[in-house]
Write a structure and sequence with these properties.
Layout (H helix, E strand, L loop, with lengths): L1 H28 L1
């Protein structure tokens, strides 16, 4: 159970940090 919660938290943090990088890479591709 604890691992599940840890993964969920990691995903939340990742979804906060990732968008800007993904956004930049998308802008760079276009």
């Amino acid at each position: 159970e604890k691992q599940k919660e840890g993964k969920k938290r990691m995903r939340q943090i990742g979804s906060v940090e990732l968008p800007s990088e993904a956004f930049m890479s998308v802008l760079r591709i276009n």
